[in-house]
Amino acid sequence: MSKLKEKLMLSEKGYSDLKKAITACTITNIVLLLPSMVACLLFWELLKPFTGEAISWDALWKLLGLGVVAAILVFLAAKNDYRKTYIASYKEASTTRLRIAEHLRKLPMSFFNTKDLSDITTNMMADCSSMESMLSSTIPPLIANIISVTLICICLAFFDWRMALAIFCTMPITFLIIWCGRKLQLRLFDKQVDVKLEASSQIQEYLEGIKIIKACGLGGSRFSTLDKALQAMRKIAIRVELASGILVQGASLVLQAGLGITIFIGTVLITGGQIELLPLLVLFMFSTQIYGPILAILSQLTSLFHLGTVTNRMRTLLTTPAMEGEDKDVSKYDIELKSVTFGYNQDDVIKDVSFSIPTGSVTALVGPSGSGKSTISKLIARFWDVRKGQISIGGMDVRTIEPEHLMRCMSFVFQDVTLFNDTVFNNIRVGNMNATEEQVMAAAKAAYCNEFIQRLPDGYQTILGENGSTLSGGERQRISIARALLKDAPIILLDEATASLDPENEVLIQRAIAKLVEGKTVIMIAHRLRTVVDADQILVLDNGRLVEHGTHDELMKKNGLYHKLFHIQQESLGWAV
Ligand SMILES: Nc1ncnc2c1ncn2[C@@H]1O[C@H](COP(=O)(O)OP(=O)(O)OP(=O)(O)O)[C@@H](O)[C@H]1O
């Protein structure tokens, strides 16, 4: 049983609930035998005239009473069984989904680099649902059926071992058939999981790219790719059903051949005078009922074979090591990079970079596209851990600080702002979940959001829709600045937020940023060099290396890459289309 706990990755509560569910199912199965036993006894009583005995009406009334009691017991047992299996399994699946969500939060970004979003969604939804149905409709009934069939087998053996042998003689062959088909089923099921993943990733891509599909007239070709993925899903689903159908039906045929053997042995025994007619008829009646639970075991076993495929993916996710660190509070905010090297894959994109950023200063990261500016800011925030070298904040290696503690001292303003499908108010409060209404409003005003929020249908209570699709680029960025203002973190990471905005929005955002960075340690990634001329230091990156650093004036005098980039941009400012 504890192996099952490990295999299903159950919580302590889930494991104890599973044991209770198995007990409840077993009780239901045993109680369910009562009506059959009453029916057999009734049958026996009604057949008495054929053996020259008289029917006892007293016994018939008693059996009727027993039947009513059996029906009540069946109802109570089934109710208890439902509560213990279904409700407990829904609770456990929801606990597992939360466990996955909680764990995902702690994983390094490198994990998301290698995993498809639809894969993780499948983990959280489909795999947890499969686990839910294993916990409710497969494992407890399977174990309960095994227990009750064994009990019946023992009772029958006491009653007449020869007939018991006849009833169960085909059972080993049926299990052998299911066991031999296991490999084929597993192979098909693994394939089905891959095909389903491919289809869900195609659907996601189709929906996400719907704008581009319309704009570029890609409807036909994209649709046929999606169509192929869905057709593949249909084909494999039919093959999986066909394989398990053939196996279970084949096994069930063999099993029910036992009925013929039972009748044959019964006839032999009665003609040899070795069994009475009434017990024989009752045994015949019982044997027709015993195959039901055995058939249920067969189909539950085939579902159980898939358990590995379902749980292996969940296990991979839940056992991926989280980023570790101590709950240290950062109290000094100077940043230092010592010989830092890093790569997302095998190739290094940051190569032996060293620099330091004093507390309260403004540092600009500049350089050609792909030179590694964003990567450096993400390494400082410990979205990834460095490959070689060290990054420290306030003298502490960031790898020794628990990521959520580290995040408390940093605010981000990125170009791609993520907004949640929630109210504007709650979207701003993301910056500080303990902020009061007044503080949220004050941050919104300081970030020049108040005016456009008041124009929304329900003001601060307007729901923004998925990823704030109803707001303009400038409005989204001002909300992200309001969040950062509310967080009031001592270190600010800015990915040039005004890169693609109209002049009016740009002025508002520059003013909001000016308020945000007052007295803070600021690292800004700048694409337009005229925005960094006042920075305390400018770090120039090229192909992952730090090639120049200094103030604007110093770098202009050096006549190097910065000087060249600055002049190219100045010239382009004069261009007109
Ligand atoms: N998640 C990722 N996985 C793999 N490679 C990545 C990833 N993010 C960035 N890179 C690669 O790392 C290199 C540096 O990228 P980075 O985004 O840091 O450059 P950047 O200077 O900020 O570029 P830009 O100015 O265009 O935003 C690039 O070659 C890029 O293709």
UniProtKB/TrEMBL annotation:
<dbReference type="InterPro" id="IPR027417">
    <property type="entry name" value="P-loop_NTPase"/>
</dbReference>
<dbReference type="Pfam" id="PF00664">
    <property type="entry name" value="ABC_membrane"/>
</dbReference>
<keyword id="KW-0812">Transmembrane</keyword>
<dbReference type="GO" id="GO:0005524">
    <property type="term" value="F:ATP binding"/>
</dbReference>
<feature type="transmembrane region" description="Helical">
    <location>
        <begin position="21"/>
        <end position="47"/>
    </location>
</feature>
<keyword id="KW-0472">Membrane</keyword>
<feature type="transmembrane region" description="Helical">
    <location>
        <begin position="242"/>
        <end position="270"/>
    </location>
</feature>
<feature type="transmembrane region" description="Helical">
    <location>
        <begin position="165"/>
        <end position="181"/>
    </location>
</feature>
<feature type="transmembrane region" description="Helical">
    <location>
        <begin position="290"/>
        <end position="308"/>
    </location>
</feature>
<dbReference type="InterPro" id="IPR011527">
    <property type="entry name" value="ABC1_TM_dom"/>
</dbReference>
<protein>
    <submittedName>
        <fullName>ABC transporter ATP-binding protein</fullName>
    </submittedName>
</protein>
<feature type="domain" description="ABC transmembrane type-1">
    <location>
        <begin position="54"/>
        <end position="304"/>
    </location>
</feature>
<dbReference type="GO" id="GO:0016887">
    <property type="term" value="F:ATP hydrolysis activity"/>
</dbReference>
<keyword id="KW-1133">Transmembrane helix</keyword>
<keyword id="KW-0547">Nucleotide-binding</keyword>
<dbReference type="GO" id="GO:0005886">
    <property type="term" value="C:plasma membrane"/>
</dbReference>
<dbReference type="GO" id="GO:0034040">
    <property type="term" value="F:ATPase-coupled lipid transmembrane transporter activity"/>
</dbReference>
<dbReference type="InterPro" id="IPR017871">
    <property type="entry name" value="ABC_transporter-like_CS"/>
</dbReference>
<dbReference type="InterPro" id="IPR039421">
    <property type="entry name" value="Type_1_exporter"/>
</dbReference>
<dbReference type="InterPro" id="IPR036640">
    <property type="entry name" value="ABC1_TM_sf"/>
</dbReference>
<keyword id="KW-0067">ATP-binding</keyword>
<keyword id="KW-0813">Transport</keyword>
<dbReference type="Pfam" id="PF00005">
    <property type="entry name" value="ABC_tran"/>
</dbReference>
<dbReference type="GO" id="GO:0140359">
    <property type="term" value="F:ABC-type transporter activity"/>
</dbReference>
<dbReference type="InterPro" id="IPR003593">
    <property type="entry name" value="AAA+_ATPase"/>
</dbReference>
<feature type="domain" description="ABC transporter">
    <location>
        <begin position="335"/>
        <end position="568"/>
    </location>
</feature>
<feature type="transmembrane region" description="Helical">
    <location>
        <begin position="59"/>
        <end position="78"/>
    </location>
</feature>
<feature type="transmembrane region" description="Helical">
    <location>
        <begin position="139"/>
        <end position="159"/>
    </location>
</feature>
<dbReference type="InterPro" id="IPR003439">
    <property type="entry name" value="ABC_transporter-like_ATP-bd"/>
</dbReference>
